[in-house]
Amino acid sequence: MNTAGADPLALEDMSVTTLADPVEPAAKPRVRDAEATKSRILDAAKKEFAKSGMGGARVDVIAEKAKANKRMIYHYFGSKEDLFRTVLENAYVDIRSAEQKLNLDHLEPREALERLVRFTWGYYLKNPEFITLVNSENLHRAKHLKQSEVVKVYSRKFVAMMENILTRGVATGVFRAGVDPVQLNITVAAIGYYYLTNRFTGAILFERDLMSKEALEERLAFNIDTIMRLVSV
Amino acid sequence: MNTAGADPLALEDMSVTTLADPVEPAAKPRVRDAEATKSRILDAAKKEFAKSGMGGARVDVIAEKAKANKRMIYHYFGSKEDLFRTVLENAYVDIRSAEQKLNLDHLEPREALERLVRFTWGYYLKNPEFITLVNSENLHRAKHLKQSEVVKVYSRKFVAMMENILTRGVATGVFRAGVDPVQLNITVAAIGYYYLTNRFTGAILFERDLMSKEALEERLAFNIDTIMRLVSV
DNA sequence: CCCCTAACGCACTAACTGGTTACTTTCTTA
DNA sequence: TAAGAAAGTAACCAGTTAGTGCGTTAGGGG
Which residues contact B124 (CB under 8 A, 6 or more apart)? Predict the structure, then answer.
């Protein structure tokens, strides 16, 4: 594409560019809406960064998919890296918020833990961008996340949530004592995350469809079992 | 760097380039060695692909680090993607070969399984490129690995190895029946892989040094415990 | 109704980047 | 030892890519 000075948006239904055509008056009044544009850019950026990573994503593609001008990206977000930082931060805030909404604190500990495992698995499945964004960020040694303060606050609540479940379980006698909530958090994430992020090489190595309905159900059951055995007395 | 037509290898000890200096006669006869050059290219490529991913790695940088000319890369490997494919295939063959050398088949099942968990963890730690290469390959939906036949052969042996351990353990009565060797393989990899690949974001989220000697030992112990509890009767 | 701010758009560029052309140098072997 | 095959090199190219300069347009406040 972009051969000569051709309009890169020529594919779109831009019937009115220079002359106001009397026919189709409501075609494109082109409303100005900063918030909506920002939001479209963030959505498109999330998808592109997830598909190609921070380095592989193309700013022009993001602009095109957001139906926005590239100039707007730089106007609102400053740079590609700043855009990535925002996308990443939003992704973390989103998953941590969803976790908090689970309201596990007044559930029976085993039930609470199982729900957390189910939620984590389900979240990764429904939000595949999350995993790829995190992978990309780790390739860059977390240089973007380092600058985020919000994420830290949310993370503390996340660890506290697991701590609470464990403490209550030990008190009730259903969980053994001495399990590190951080290690458990990491493990809950790991057994779902690894399976999904490496599903392509995994399908080849194990000569199995890892993404069929049955395979996914089987893995979830296996993961719940793994975590339950880990904390049981 | 690379400002004008300056020699990109100028930093190196290239004392003799045009005139044969009578002093230091054995300085640089510039021996021709195809195998050595290929090997240097592969080493440099592994490091670069691991550091920046397949997309982010730069062919010029690989050539420079390999102390080879970029043209040699194309001469020996055809394209950047073919070079990546070779590096990736080598990486898989390497880990699978090392696993086979563990000779777990005549060890007591629990001992064998623990050794496999220890080996996997140790291999990831000593070969951090492996993880990043696999991540990059999964970002590209395993398109390079799909073309490799060798890897499949090795993988079958890998699954068979775990199958053997499990079967023997069930027979001896130390392991419960019904554990899927593929799920177990995935889990053994997952709990080590995830911890290490996400160590940068992890350090921020959990406000902990995940790579200190103690932290690494603690995680390994936790992982062994997780796997043992998973298979125990 | 005017005007000024902010939203928006186009065309350009400087630096890269994978890949190639055309060449020189070294080694082997007939 | 002549010759040619293989190893190695430098300069170059065409296509990209993040980022910008500068002009246009909408719409809310005065």
Answer: B130, B131, B192, B193, B196
Sequence-ordered list of residues with C-beta below 8 angstroms from that of B7, at least 6 positions apart, any chain? B14, B17
**B232 backbone dihedrals φ, ψ, rounded to 5°:** -65, 150
Asked whether the beta carbons of B145 and B88 are under 8 A apart, the reply is yes
Contact A155 B52 (CB under 8 A): no
Tens of pLDDT, residue by residue over B51-74, are 999 999 999 999 999 999 999 999
Distance, CA of B160 to chain centre:
22
The span from the CA of B66 to the CA of B71, in Å, is: 12
Roughly what angle, to the nearest 10 degrees, separates helices B128-139 and B34-56? 60
Question: Chain C: nucleotides under 7 Å from a protein CB?
Answer: 6-12, 16-22, 25-27
pTM of the full structure: 0.88
Six-digit token string for A17: 């560019």
Question: Which tens digits make up the pLDDT trace of B138-187?
Answer: 999 999 999 998 999 999 999 999 999 999 999 999 999 999 999 999 99
